[in-house]
Every structure is written in C-alpha cells, then in structure tokens.
C-alpha cells in the first residue's frame, strides 16, 4: 500500500509505502498484517499536532504494518520510536516496511515484540528497553476485542509506572458500543482517566488523503492516571 500524506512535513516528500495484506486476515489469526483505519486517523491527528511527538521517544503498541511508527520517524521528527507488537509474524514483517521507507539499519525505529499483560521488567533484562525513556505511547485499533482489553490496560499501567510523565494517545475504532464501553470501564476500574479529543473522522468527500472509511467513529483518547 502507498499512502500520500496531505501536507509536506519538513524537507521530505510525504509518502509512506507499506507491505501488507489488504483483503484478508492472516490464517494465523493476526490482524496486524494490514493497516486499519484507526492508524490512518491517528496519523492525521499527529500531523495536526506534530509537537506531541517531535523530539520525543515514542512507544507504539500494536504497531502492525508500522504506519504510525514510520510517520513519526520519517516526517514528525521523533527522537526514537519503538514499534511493538505481540505477534511474532508481525514483528518479523516490520523490517520490510522499514526498508521500503528508507529506515533499514536506522536507529530511528526499533521493532520489538511486546505481549500485553506480560511484565516489561524482571524477565530478559533488568531495565526494559535498555533503560531508555518513553515520552509518548501511541496505539491504533488496539481495543478491538473485549478479551484483550484487561491485558492492554495492564501494560499501559506498567508503562505509566516506569515512565510517570508519559503521554498516552489511542485511536479506538468503535465497531460496537459494548466493546468500546468495556475499554472505558476497564480504564475506570484501573484508575485511568480517558479524555476524548475533538477530532472526528472527516467525511470521505472532504478527505485529501490518505483515504479511509468514514462510517464507523474513531475516538482519539488520551489516557491519564488519576
């Protein structure tokens, strides 16, 4: 997939190329081999607020094809991006997308496996990610299933524990109200405040690229510890 961004950012032509499966979900059950609408919408949100990630160390949860991570590294001036996913297959495919965007061998983006609900520290290394700070946590379409939400929120809690000043922004597609309310409920129960940014999906006729479905609402949520 090729995505042309609507504005020029910095001195680079705004263009992202991704290797993905557009018309199917992989037989292994992973959804991370295609770019979903929430990633494109989160990208649009960041383009209007580049200061959120400029010069920052970014952690992306559920990076999938790497669209948001590549956008941050190539066009929004992020200091470093850790592109994580819980699927071995997805993490193994991320270098292909990085290669297509001139990031092969670069220190700007680091693919990493991260399984939600599993401890970040006290396992393979004494300090997670070599002790490097995280300033911003991003995630797109990672609240898709009620069964994964407690583990996801648990990981976000642990990130807050390691990096109390981190900003967390999630783009959540509301495919059904019950699943989205489950996400809100789990956050509430864990002492996390969900603040909704005013950034609706633009009607398709008003989109200037990338183009994506305007039928389902996509919420831009900022998570904060109470």
Automatic annotation (TrEMBL):
Coiled-coil stretches: none
A single Gene Ontology CC term: cytoplasm
An annotated GO BP: methylation
UniProt keyword Iron-sulfur, yes or no: no
Xref: InterPro entries: Methyltransf_16, SAM-dependent_MTases_sf
Single GO MF annotation: S-adenosylmethionine-dependent methyltransferase activity
Superkingdom classification of source: Eukaryota
Keyword Nucleus listed: no
Keywords assigned: Methyltransferase, Transferase
Protein name per Swiss-Prot or TrEMBL: Methyltransferase-domain-containing protein
Species of provenance: Pseudoneurospora amorphoporcata
């Amino acid at each position: 997939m090729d995505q042309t961004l609507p504005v020029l950012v910095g001195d680079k032509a705004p263009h992202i190329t991704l290797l993905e499966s557009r018309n199917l979900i992989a037989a292994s059950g992973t959804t991370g081999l295609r770019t979903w609408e929430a990633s494109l919408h989160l990208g649009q949100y960041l383009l209007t607020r580049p200061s959120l990630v400029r010069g920052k160390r970014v952690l992306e949860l559920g990076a999938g094809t790497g669209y948001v991570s590549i956008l941050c590294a190539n066009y929004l001036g992020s200091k470093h991006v850790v592109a994580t996913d819980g699927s071995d297959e997805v993490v193994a495919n991320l270098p292909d997308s990085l290669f297509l965007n001139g990031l092969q061998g670069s220190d700007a983006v680091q693919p990493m496996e991260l399984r939600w609900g599993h401890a970040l520290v006290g396992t393979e290394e004494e300090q997670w990610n070599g002790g490097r700070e995280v300033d911003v946590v991003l995630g797109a379409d990672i609240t898709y299933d009620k069964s994964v939400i407690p583990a996801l929120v648990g990981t976000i809690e642990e990130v807050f524990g390691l990096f109390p000043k981190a900003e967390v922004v999630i783009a959540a597609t509301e495919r059904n109200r019950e699943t989205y309310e489950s996400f809100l409920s789990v956050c509430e129960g864990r002492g996390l405040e969900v603040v909704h940014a005013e950034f609706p999906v633009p009607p398709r006729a008003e989109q200037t690229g990338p183009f994506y479905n305007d039928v389902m609402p996509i919420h831009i949520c900022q998570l904060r510890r109470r």
